[in-house]
Amino acid sequence: MSEHTIAVAMSGGVDSSVVAGMLNRAGERVIGMTMQLWNQKRLPDIASDNATGRCCSLDDVYDARHVAQLLGIPYYVVNFEDRFEAQVVKPFIDEYLAGRTPIPCTLCNNFIKFDQFLEMAEGIGAREIATGHYARIDWNGDSRRWEMRRSVDRSKDQTYFLCGLKQDQLARTRFPLGAMEKTQVRELARELGIPTAAKPDSQEICFVPNGDYAGFIDSYFKEQGIAPTETQGEIVTADGKVVGEHAGVHHFTVGQRRGLGIAAAEPLYVIATEPASKRVVIGRNDDLLRASMHVREVNWISIAAPSAPLRAEVKIRNKHAAAAATLLPAAADGTRIEVRFDEPQRAVTPGQGAVFYSGDLVLGGGWIE
Amino acid sequence: MTRFYFDHNATTPVSPEVFQAMAPLMTTVFGNASSIHQFGQEARGELDRARRSVAAMLGAKAEEIVFTGGGTEADNMAIFGAGGHVITTTIEHPAVLQAAQQLPEVTFVKVDRQGLVDPQAVRAAIRPDTKLISVMHVNNELGVIQPLREIAEIAHDAGVLFHSDGVQAMGKLPVNVGELGVDLYSISAHKIYGPKGMGALYIRKGTELRPLLYGGPHERKMRAGTENVPGAAGFGRAAEWVIAESRAEAARLSVLRDRLEQRILTRVTGAHVNGSAAPRVGNTSNIRFDGIDSEPLLIGLDLKGFAVSSGSACSSGATEPSHVLAAIGLTREQARSSVRFSLGRSNTEAQVDALIDAVVEVVSRLRKLAPAYV
After folding, report:
1. How many structural domains are present in chain B?
2. With contacts defined as CB-CB under 8 Å, which chain B residues touch A81?
3. CATH number for B280
4. Which domain holds residue A113?
């Protein structure tokens, strides 16, 4: 194969199928690959044929293979289950137990899709990879950096999950859908004769059926022989008054209102989870507001690490409308940042990503402390 | 891109002579071999002729051959047909292994680091209720040849039936069921340039076995279902090739296989041949490359036009590394770094040399990307 071979990560969904079809039509040498990341039958308690948001099912492999056959491109399934469990699933569970709310998609991008997959691609002789992510990558000749921008279709933008990508990874990655609207993608799917054109978009966390992450963690504990009682504890108010009990800290995330089971005059929310004492702290909506936060392990993408305060818009959840803030370097190398919001933000959640933008440009991002 | 096939233990192409033998039986000579009329008689004639050829390949009598829908079915017939306690090994093909796991009473005998079964371990596993011992003749992944004669003696001393899965032995070494002492022997057509979906079970005359499928009185009531005459005819023609030419072909392949192994071991550091100290058939080579994941090696070779395999074909895409490599004591990582090359009729010395160059190139590329693969 030539040096210009592109390995397309194919999930069996519309987006990655269109990527393979577009590149193939453009005359590129394309090979399709599906990553087997998690065995959905592994945890029988939560395995269900009609669960939504699943990845790596035989149906998905069948769909991806079908598309590859139609396009006449080589196609392979590669197994990354060991790495996925070690680098994504276990940290996901550990984060919950540590009282933080993790984003496995970012870990998967950092350690699987743009690391092991990229390496696999290089190993088999493909210099570049392409995926169906909605984001844009451009080379800036002045700054000599690869820049990342939000996708043209802002409703599909996935840059929040891509904030860990390094320059050498961006240099070998293509996101052909970043410049397209989702409706265009579906039209193109029909035009290319892709049979999954009408397949619904995947939702939620891919390895957790029906979005029930607490149920997933419970089942995983059961498989590993960890007793569920070990995470049970008290529900307390900010001043330490015990108002109830809970079934495990991993059932709660900051800002959550449902499932507290406590009657009160005004709505109550989870303010914090304290894994050491196994306590869940609750309070009023106003108690959730934070004017500042620290972000660790910051990766700078479109700009070099700043040495002076910097204005930016900061996203603290995928669905969060980025809020204006000032970024203050808290470490000499720029890997730790203090974020001071212009307006206090609700439910700043430790463990989630914080991504810094300047308009469409993705400056960088890290993890909320 | 020219493609070269080095995966003959997975399957082989139907040879031109086999194809020619089969073609009229799907068009002009289409009768049901059980019908009384001339159409049926023609088909019956072809079926009988094929049965004689397959029997001759094994040194058996025609009436001892029951045609099946493949090697897996023949293995299942043997495993489920005897009743009682069954002894088999940890390196069997899944057709035996998974069938045996369904039985209420089964013992799996371990193998040594070369993949060899110790006949004395088989003897030690025999119980008063043991009805069948099943040990494969040639292992599909390693090519290791098991000491069937010794095990057959042990089985017969104990009054126990002896079955062997001979699917990977056919065409690779001379097989005579009388000399081997087997009561039951499974074979498959598509490993010897015959059609897929066609196999047979040799059942020594006088051996009592329950059928797997019930229905019509076909195959002496041992295998119900309208006879697959085209498949049988193809199998028969393939058997004739085995009788006439496979000995010379096996010798030719053995030279090529040795060339492949010696040159890879010389040119690639940290390469080891799995099962090399045991008696092996001459077409198979299972090589372990330290620090290499077989998945990108296999794909990288495929993209260069060389078809090889990691473990058995059925394991591809699966999570668990080969049960055979685990059974000979390889770690998970070692098993995952092993690749099987299996040579056949299409392979030439020039192809082998090109394969060696490709292996050297892909392995060195992958090693540069380490340590992720270690």
Report:
1. 2
2. 319
3. 3.90.1150.10
4. 6-133+175-211
Respond yes or no: is residue B314 known to be catalytic: yes
Closest by Cβ to B319, choosing from A79, A116, A119: A79
Same structural domain, B211 and B322: no
ipTM of the prediction:
0.85
Residue whose tokens read 């126990």: B160
- Residue B103 counted as domain residue: yes
Angle A211-A214-A217 from CA coordinates, rounded to 5°: 110
**Which residue range(s) make up the domain with B360?**
4-11+246-369
If phi > 0 it is left, if psi is from -120 to 50 it is alpha, else beta; for residue A163 that is alpha
pLDDT at residue B282 in the model: 97
**Could you check whether the bond before residue B371 is cis, i.e. omega within 30 degrees of 0?**
yes
Alpha carbon of B311: minimum distance to chain A alpha carbons (Å):
15
Least confident of A46-50, A354-358, B38-42, B249-253: A46-50
Within this chain, do residues B124 and B265 fall inside the same structural domain, yes or no?
A: no
CATH of the domain at B67: 3.40.640.10
| CA angle, residues A96, A97, A100, in degrees to nearest 5 | 40
Classify A363 as helix, strand or coil.
strand
Catalytic residue among B26, B314, B369, B370: B314
Cβ of B369 within 8 Å of Cβ of A5? The answer is no
Question: pLDDT digits over B90-140, tens only?
Answer: 999 999 999 999 999 999 999 999 999 999 999 999 999 999 999 999 999
pTM: 0.89
Return the structure tokens found at B329.
């004591």
Quick check: B17 contacting A, CB < 8 Å?
no
Asked if the Cβ–Cβ distance from B365 to A74 is below 8 Å, we say no
Provide residues of A within 8 Å CB-CB of chain B: 1, 5, 31, 36, 39, 61, 74, 76-79, 81, 115-116, 119-120, 122-125
**B219: β partners:** none
Residues A215-232: what's their mean pLDDT?
Answer: 81
Residue B315: is its pLDDT beyond 80? no
Residues A313 and A257 in one domain: no
Determine which of A4, A62, A79 to mutate to test the interface with B (most B C-beta atoms within 10 Å).
A79
- Can you tell me which residue has the tokens 């996925």? A84
Chain A residue with the nearest C-alpha to that of B304:
A1
Closest chain A C-alpha to B112 CA, distance in angstroms: 28
Rounded to a whole number of angstroms, the distance from the CA of A40 to the nearest CA of chain B is 12
Is the model's pLDDT at B298 over the cut of 60? yes
- Domains in chain A, number: 3
Residue that terminates a domain, selected from B242, B277, B295? B242
Distance from CA of A116 to the nearest CA of B (A): 8
**A chain contacts of residue B299, beta-carbon cutoff 8 Å:** 76, 78, 124
Residue A129 contacts residue A7 (beta carbons within 8 Å) = yes
Q: B374 lies in a domain?
A: no
Measured between CA atoms, the residue of chain B closest to residue A29 is B303
Q: Which of residues 295-334 of B touch A (CB under 8 A)?
A: 295-297, 299-300, 302-304, 316-319
Beta carbons of A125 and B303 less than 8 Å apart: yes
